[in-house]
Predict the 3D structure of the following.
Amino acid sequence: MIHLTKISKQHGSQILFSNASLQILPGTRAGLVGANGTGKTTIFRLITGEEDADGGEISCSKKIKIGYFSQNVGEMSGGSALQEVMSAASDVVMLGKKMKEMEAAMAEPMDETAMEVVLEEYGEAAEEFENRGGYDLENRAQTILTGLGIGPTDYTRPVESFSGGWKMRIALAKILTISPEVLLLDEPTNHLDMESIIWLENWLVNDFKGALLMTCHDHDFMNRVVNRTVEVANHTTTTYGGNYDFYIREREIRLKQLIASHRRQQEMLAKEENFIARFKARVSHAAQVQSRIKKLEKIERIQLPEQQRVIKFEFSPPPRSGDDVVLLDGLKKTWETEDREAKTVFSDISGLINRQDKIAVVGVNGAGKSTFLKVLAGKTRPTKGIAKIGASVKIGYFSQHSMDILDSKKTIFETIQEALPLAGIGVIRNLCGAFLFSGDDVEKRIAQLSGGEKSRVVLASLLGQPINFLILDEPTNHLDIQSREVLLHALKLFIGTIVLVSHDRHFLRCLVDRVFEIDKGEMTVYKGDYEYYLSKTGHDHRAI
């Protein structure tokens, strides 16, 4: 279907690819993995023709329809959510109109020859219309919108009224609705809640019949959707014949074998070079010396891959808090809507958060999870009841809003220094380095940073402080899989208390020991880990 052969590509002085090859074959489901900046998105842009390769060849089967979802959704205006989704298949809609015109023409008297021509054209159009899913286009668009969390009551809402995150869902629905032969997805789970992620996972596994190439930072999603993993690193691509867990295991095996081969080669080269150095001045050994020099010239040197930079962080032991971290008694929160009506988010929540609890707060989108965390963190006052913070509790709160309130004029170093005023320059630089800001990077201004970099700045500012109660609202957003794993490892070793919201099932499964579920304004406490919660509720968070 699509073949990238011996591709080279350079952005300025940065070499992305040198002699890289990749195939997208019918029915394959491949995940692209690699550090940020290695060229994963560039591969999508090369396939779609948005960028040209500097060298090599890109070939694509004729009449292959490619659907590409990127993080740049573009402008949306002038129609409803459903109309916006349907607009992606405007050619199919036009084909349907053309068929109706031909049907009307055939209903009128015409000679036999003309009828044969129209019938042939109509047959070809009908076959294409059916192949493109024209007969159930609107129903399919509605089903996909609903699956991504935009229900029937919002189909007719003006697309301009949706926030950026919801527009991303509409953009994703547009791509899925056209049923392409090749689907390119660049971080499709960003901005999706748990229910929508699971729906998309099931749709890709059970309903989508084409070939898939995607990037994704969700460990479980990658494992359940892909059957090939393509690593983008060291200016090339390497394909592994399995899901993400298979890739991790196989890469480790291959790396150990490569290191062993490299060591043996280095030992051999050192031996040969030592012989040449010892005997190059002796006439009696001239033939042997020349023979070994030519031998060394022909040997292809084994290159070890560059070590990928990942977050390296360990908590300093936090001060000990009291055993009762937060007492909840009759907690209620009501927001005032735009039309000045009171909307109750949750009510009558009571319970106790104990020292060293690691708690996940779960619930459907809009259930009030983030609001509950804001109340715990003291960022908003409860309408009724109390959330009493215990003795010696020092709170650290992370949210996506934290990134928005960073001072864009300050540098990374100044931002972290402001959060840790008593820390020395060396401590701050070490902390910056742990979160992948080294050398001159620390002098970058916040305004220059990507979403992922801003997220790391906030995490560094927070986690460097002596806190014993972490309240984390989607801490893994914008982090790649490797960085998520390191953060997960650090949080598992954290001896304080954690309450978090996350849509990363792997993160929850590996970390939490209790689950608070908010549903229809009420909270249910599950005194067990995430798998225990799933077993008790019957929620199936796996592809079926």
Notes: Residues 73 and 171 are 6 Å apart (CA to CA).
